Amino acid sequence: MKHQKLNGNWKMRELKENNWLDANVPGSVMSTLLANDKVSDPFWRTNEYEARELFRKDYEFERTFIIEEDLYENDHIELVCYGLDTLAEIYVNDILLSKTNNMHRTWRFECKPLLQSGENQIRIIFRSPINYIESYVPEEDKKIHFVSSGSMKGNQYIRKAHCMFGWDWGAQIPDAGIWRDIELVGYTDGKIEDVNIIQHHHEGEVNIDIRTELQLLKDNHYNLEYTLISPNGITSSYCQTAINGCNSYIIAVEHPELWWPNGYGEQPLYHLSVSVKNNDNIMDSKEYTIGLRTLTISQEKDQWGSEFAFKINGVKIFAKGADYIPEDTIYSNITKERIEYLIESCVRANYNCLRVWGGGYYPSDDFFDLCDRYGLIVWQDLMYACNVYDLTKEFEENIIEETKDNVRRIRHHACLGLWCGNNEIESGWYIWPSLMDHSEKLKADYIKQFEYVLPRTVEALDKSTFFWPSSPSSGGCFDNPVDENRGDTHYWDVWHGQLPFEDYRNHYFRFCSEFGFQSFPSIKTVKTFTEESDRNIFSEVMESHQKNTAANGKMLYYLSENFLYPKDFENLLYVTQILQGSAIKYGVEHWRRNRGRCMGALYWQLNDSWPVASWASIDYYGRWKALHYMAKRFYAPVAGTLSRTGEVVEAHILNETLSDKKCNVEVSLKTMDFEVLCKDTYELVVPALSARKVGERNYSDFITGINKQVYVEAVFTDEDGYQSTEVEIFVPFKYLELKKPEITCHVTENEDCYVISCQAKSLACFVELDFEESDGIFSDNYFYITGKEPVTVELRKTDIRGEGFADARDLEQKLQIRSLRDTY
Ligand code: BMA
């Protein structure tokens, strides 16, 4: 097997124009135009709309290459395209090789007859996706009028990430191009078609069952060789005679080192290579990194209905995390480094799970490798979201092949926890009036597509991974997909329904796979797309970076319920982040307190694909919003929480680790100047994988009448020394008479980090540390200062981006400190 990459230097032009531009592949029309300064930043002000119009045109990519002699000698040469976006016509030496129509597929074409020794040319024309969806006409009885929020009508007619046509957080820039690798692969004797690695776990031993599909074209004798390298480097090799077709081999692993998600143990990984050899000549080989574990969804019946919980190595865990969307509007710009930054940010915020939402793309191999390494369970939607599809024969064949490609590519990963048919389409047919009024034929097509065609295709290739028809669902067949007592739920009454945060507590979902709350990104991010005069949330520019038309009104409504009106634009941005973090915290803590009944809380959404106001906790530039810091605390393996009903405050501890934890809790009622009015101390052991109420106190004696200018401070310390402080107040923040806390910070420098020690004269709420020019990920941020003792925050030097600091003094001078009292 011989490979020749065709990545690298190409040329691109608008079709039939003569201006060829240098293009780097993987790359796209947008990435090429930007690199050649032919288009202005599509994210700047309202440039998005001009950028969108570029995709009414067709484009062409072209390159020549000298075919390597030892590749050309092969009987068969395939052109392999790992991502063509989307309506492509491929010409090799001016002869049409094929046309493609699905960006999610891996395309392989035999092209030897079109190649010649020496120099060759390849051209790929990309037709306008906008023209395609606008001119698409479904059959008479399959008229579709539903348009997903923020998207262009007809986005579902083409197998291209839906959100490239816009979403309620995304720009309408349906880019085109060669978005993943492209190469030539030559072979004469045969090749490995497929390797399926199945794990059988039994009484502390694992059998790795390797099914290798071979295409052997010559009558030679071949061996299949397997090499397994254990996490600590011990290599074992195995060999069998290879046959044409399916080969099966079992490697028994005694004393397996099991893979665990983040927070429950290590992520040991085994390396498996499968090679086909004739004597010492390797005909073909494939490499896999695998983690040994059992992972499924448990749906045991109980007094409320049926649970919905990830069960890893026999242990049911509470899923903590968020929903993942495409990381950029220009997909070829998503590098491994950026993915790693994001995934590391998840793990640092104590996630154990990510849901890959169905309106984007199937993530790259790098993404899954990183989730294996960092220990994030992946809930993988198939790429369908909030739409009605015209299930023609051609569409059906296309999505079957797409599913096969992706299941084969992803199924061996330790992190893969679940396949899910789609986002919100079953529930859409059940409760969204604008979707429900489509024809019965389209509704029947839904069942065919998502409960027959796709699950059968997945199951034929991956019997080990749990399949779920839709999110949310109760198991399919329109059997009350929004049932709170079975399956997963998307809950949007706080936010879209404008109910108060308290409403989270009226629900005991079995697994909340979506719930969210918007905020604006930080001022530094806003500055990247605005001029000074745009910095008003109702300006045209700010509104066009807000894709949910009702959202600014919602943020202002919740603001009015909770906070005093901020004095300026910058403080308004900050307060929306505090609101967002507080809302999500309210929900997560409630569901974690009800561990057992509820077994997962994934908030909407982790990330952004451009600079925008959205539900994300990390913005497009990787800046952690207040919510992400709060997530680090409310998703902590051992987390303390307070919950207030009237004047009664309860303290709880949530232990999501595999060991019992001895904890100490000190709950005090304090005045704004830190004077302790009363104090309770508790010592308790919180059993592994459980939530426990520590105690409660009724404070009515202290706060009778109008004297509610006090707060409850709870300091939770576990046996490992992890400490967290929670605060509860008895009035909305807008009625809390905060004094100016006069925060001072003192900075010292260690070899690999700066230590920032912050003190205040009175209660300081949501203390934000930031810099004007640089960015940093602090060990904590948006925290309270509840006493005279300093709060210490670390900033690792490797977590500083931007200009950086000469020394501790320099950092101290550049540190910007804000707390709630500064906003009005
Ligand atoms: C959810 C998602 C997305 C959307 C989000 C916010 O239900 O599935 O479609 O972006 O709501 O409205």
Automatic annotation (TrEMBL):
UniProt xrefs under InterPro entries: Beta-gal/glucu_dom_sf, Beta-mannosidase-like_N2, Beta-mannosidase_GH2, Beta-mannosidase_Ig, Galactose-bd-like_sf, GH, Ig-like_fold, Ig-like_GH2
Domain Beta-mannosidase-like galactose-binding as annotated: residue spans: 10-180
Gene Ontology CC: extracellular region
Organism per entry: Variimorphobacter saccharofermentans
Pathway of action: Glycan metabolism; N-glycan degradation
Annotated Glycoside hydrolase family 2 immunoglobulin-like beta-sandwich domain residues: 191-293
A family per Pfam: Mannosidase_ig
Protein name (Swiss-Prot/TrEMBL): Beta-mannosidase B
UniProt subcellular location: Secreted
Family under the similarity heading: Belongs to the glycosyl hydrolase 2 family. Beta-mannosidase B subfamily.
Keywords, in A-Z order: Glycoprotein, Glycosidase, Hydrolase, Secreted
Biological processes annotated in GO: carbohydrate metabolic process; glycoprotein catabolic process
Domain spans labelled Mannosidase Ig/CBM-like: 648-735
PANTHER family in UniProt: BETA-MANNOSIDASE
